[in-house]
Specification:
The structure holds two protein chains of two kinds. By secondary structure, chain A is of the alpha/beta class. Chain A has eight helices and 15 strands. In chain A, the strands form three sheets. Chain A has a seven-stranded mixed β-sheet with strand order 10-9-8-7-11-12-15, sandwiched between helices. In chain A, strands 1-2-5-4-3-6 form a six-stranded antiparallel β-sheet. In chain A, strands 13-14 form a two-stranded antiparallel sheet. In chain A, helix 3 runs parallel beside helix 4. By secondary structure, chain B is α/β, with parallel strands linked by helices. In chain B, the strands form four sheets. In chain B, strands 3-2-1-4-16 form a five-stranded parallel β-sheet, sandwiched between helices. Chain B has a five-stranded parallel β-sheet with strand order 6-14-7-8-9. In chain B, strand 10 and strand 11 form a beta hairpin. The chains are: A alpha/beta, B alpha/beta. The interface between A and B is large, with 41 and 40 residues.
Chain lengths: 285, 471
């Protein structure tokens, strides 16, 4: 069940796993996510699908170690088996030939989920300009793959250690200003703060309805049963797991969304610290 | 073997009370509240049964349990015989003995109820089922036909399990698809441990697996695979996926941190075992004062869970009066004994947050009762200017569920009504698609475990008839 077929470490805290999950792979489309559990006492972790192969029956996930559960996931090895792996969940990205340029922005591990979207959009005949960014060079992932999936690639880092020293919003703003209506659609996937500011940039250029963001709120079941992932979109409550995870950025209440992500911050911190202490005692770190 | 007592004596005796954990102890643990009858208790209670023919109690049972027959065997201490008698029609006796609203069903119809002392049928069913589990008494393995027809069941809750059990017993090849990582549906994620221990659910599900039923977890029909595809691959399909989408009130402040749907709150605690955090990784936040909005069984489950998770004040906020509360009498009594507070004739209008976006209060209006509405209950009317604020750290919304659209939108030719529930024949569960049946909450809207069991059984019977006709 759900064997880890390949494990790669892409940076200090970013990992890529290929998981044996033929049913999920068969149905997966760009924009969708999965929920996994490492072991029976674990929690349900939602992760966007980075890539998949229906023919070969695998699904790729890319994650960053941020808490106890992701740390534990990162300590699993090739051939280990996950306790649960369910999906694909959520609605797929609405992709078509938009008849012009499409800007695809990925930040941090958000670069992984933009890959299938960019690839598909390019296949459909769009002119894809991808912008990928990270805090620093070491954290920048998938550059070659994204380049291949795009017609143009812009790389930025916050500290200028690689590519252009800029935030992803800067090239976006410049393109919107110089190319205007020639840019038909924008995708922005990454940390909430990045998506918020990409949306702000789009709104400032009168394009708030043309930017799509992928929200990753706290979830439990991921199938519309509990409502933990509710977000306000266009003044209405939506469930990110069923109605999303992609929404029109200009309609999202980002402040509420980001506030809701902090609900368990204390418990998460304590759980991580005591887990690290346990690992240290066992001599595992 | 115990003696049969005279009718006059039967009328004189009282119901044998159920031993329980004392309230002050049980609010500190998640162990089951009722402790179960002893053999002596069970025999004494069984002796009161009038053995009516025809038996009115059976008419009140959606699963048609052979009630007088199994009770008679209890008097003889033939507990294995009693268990087999129950199992003829009911695959989940340890569950039904605990969570059925017997007072509205078998016990309501019991002739002894005219004197206010119906036979404690549920307690006896539970006793027999628990005895069988403790003594390893199981079912006889059904004979599978050499080339059995294949049936797919969507959802492993009470409807799906009941349907699967009956079809497996008839020799069919049955596969259940479950979206979550554990089978059982509402029995696992919804009903708390203190009312239905999960070890009992696991045991009963294992017994169903021993009948040859396959259960595939982590498989979301509608996303991993469509109903249309199941229809192609199987000879018949039963949809028992449950209502499964929480309702919110639509009042301001509902998305503040600290507001939960009852489904989320109970799923965290029951399925994910957040009550045992950090041993289990899923967290739950319960403050000192918790308000639960609603008056049904789910509201009672949520408020009693909050109390056990450390809430000093756990409060039910319900818009009508005590008489109209829809929860089972037993649940309300248990809640009251545990110190749950009731703010009746009270309707929330706004959740109030602090500067960090956390809940700090629930603004409510007092209500009064007017004329009866279409439900036959007196309609609550707000008293103008009666606004007040309950200081609370959490608000849990338990006002019901609506239909989750995931399954339905992948089912071509299976009609739904305007609320998104499947349209199905009341007697057979047959939908508008010739190969598809449906039952449980996804047909009726949120109801009870036993009604779902009944619907699963009816569908199994109808599916069998259909497949036999197909030859």
């Amino acid at each position: 069940m759900y064997k880890i077929l390949e494990k790669e470490r892409w940076s200090e805290s970013v990992f890529s796993y290929i998981i044996d999950a033929p049913y999920v792979a068969k149905a997966a489309q760009p924009g969708q996510f999965i929920v996994l559990i490492t072991r029976p006492t674990g929690e349900r972790i939602p992760l966007t699908i980075a890539d998949s192969s229906a023919e070969e029956g695998w699904v790729q996930i890319v994650f960053q170690v941020v808490g106890k559960s992701t740390l534990e996931l990162s300590l699993m090895e090739k051939n280990d088996e996950l306790y649960s792996f369910a999906g694909p969940l959520g609605t797929a990205s609405e992709l078509e030939n938009f008849g012009g340029k499409v800007v695809i922005i990925g930040g941090g591990i958000g670069i992984a989920p933009i890959h299938p979207i960019a690839r598909k959009l390019k296949e459909m005949g769009n002119y894809v300009v991808s912008v990928i960014g990270a805090r620093t060079k070491e954290l920048l992932i998938m550059e070659d793959k994204i380049r291949e999936a795009s017609n143009e690639l812009i790389v930025v880092t916050d500290d200028g250690s690689y590519g252009r020293k800029a935030l992803v919003t800067e090239p976006l703003d410049e393109m919107l200003k110089t190319e205007g209506e020639n840019i038909k659609k924008i995708w922005a996937i990454g940390p909430p703060i990045m998506m918020k500011f990409c949306t702000k940039t789009a709104v400032a250029n009168g394009r708030g309805n043309d930017i799509i963001v992928s929200l990753n709120p706290i979830m439990v079941d991921g199938t519309g049963m509990c409502g933990a992932c509710r977000v306000t979109v266009g003044g209405k409550t939506k469930f990110a797991c069923v109605d999303g995870p992609e929404f029109i950025g200009g309609l999202v209440d980002f402040d509420e969304f980001m506030g809701r992500q902090r609900q368990y911050i204390e418990k998460e911190k304590n759980a991580l610290e005591s887990y690290k202490a346990k690992l240290q005692k066992e001599g595992r770190v | 073997m115990a003696e049969r007592i005279k009718a006059a004596e039967k009328f004189k005796r009282n119901r044998v009370p159920m031993p329980e954990q004392p309230p002050e102890k049980r609010v500190k643990n998640f162990d089951e509240v009722p402790l179960g009858y002893t053999l002596e208790d069970a025999i004494e209670e069984a002796q009161r049964c009038l053995q009516c023919k025809p038996a009115a109690c059976i008419e009140g049972c959606p699963a048609d349990v052979h009630i007088p027959q199994f009770i008679d065997k209890v008097i003889d201490e033939d507990l294995e015989g009693a268990f087999k008698e129950i199992k003829i029609t009911n695959g989940l006796p340890a569950v039904c003995g605990r969570v059925c609203p017997q007072e509205e069903q078998c016990e309501e119809k019991c002739v002894m109820n005219k004197k206010g002392k119906p036979i404690a049928i549920g307690r006896l069913e539970r006793y027999v089922a628990d005895w069988a589990r403790e003594h390893g008494v199981g079912d006889e393995k059904p004979q599978k036909s050499s080339q059995p027809k294949k049936i797919a069941i969507v959802g492993s809750g009470p409807a799906g399990l009941a349907c699967a059990t009956d079809l497996a017993k008839l020799g069919y090849d049955v596969t259940i698809y479950e979206a979550l990582h554990k089978p059982g549906g509402v029995l696992i994620y919804g009903i708390p441990e203190f009312r239905l221990p999960k070890s009992i659910v696991d045991y009963e599900i294992n017994k169903i697996k021993e009948l040859g039923v396959k259960i595939i977890t982590n498989y979301i029909i509608g996303l991993t695979e469509s109903v249309d595809s199941l229809i192609e691959k199987y000879d018949a399909v039963f949809l028992g996926n449950g209502a499964g989408a929480p309702r919110f009130m639509g009042i301001p402040g509902e998305n503040l941190n600290g507001v939960y749907s009852a489904s989320e709150f109970l799923t965290r605690s029951n399925l994910m075992r957040a009550f045992d955090f950090p041993k289990y990784d899923t967290p739950i936040n319960v403050g000192k004062r918790v308000a639960v909005i609603g008056g049904g069984n789910v509201a009672m489950d949520a408020v009693r869970t909050a109390k056990r998770l450390g809430a000093e004040d756990a409060i039910i906020v319900y818009r009508r009066s005590r008489t109209e509360i829809p929860a089972r009498a037993e649940e309300i009594e248990h809640a009251e004994a545990e110190g749950i507070q009731f703010e009746l004739l009270t309707n929330p209008v706004r959740v109030i947050g602090d500067e960090n976006g956390n809940v700090k209060g629930l603004e409510c209006l007092r209500m009064e009762l007017g004329e009866p509405d279409e439900s036959g209950r007196r309609r609550p009317i707000p008293i103008e200017g009666s606004n007040f604020v309950l200081d609370v750290d959490n608000v849990i919304i338990a006002i019901g569920q609506s239909a989750n659209p995931i399954v339905a939108r992948s089912a071509t030719g299976v009609e739904t009504n305007k609320w998104g529930y499947f349209v199905a024949d009341e007697e057979t569960g047959h939908t508008t698609h010739p190969k598809v049946w449906a039952g449980g909450d996804i047909v009726t809207g949120a109801a009870t475990v036993i009604l779902a069991v009944g619907a699963g059984k009816k569908a199994a019977e109808s599916i069998n008839k259909y497949l036999e006709e197909q030859g």
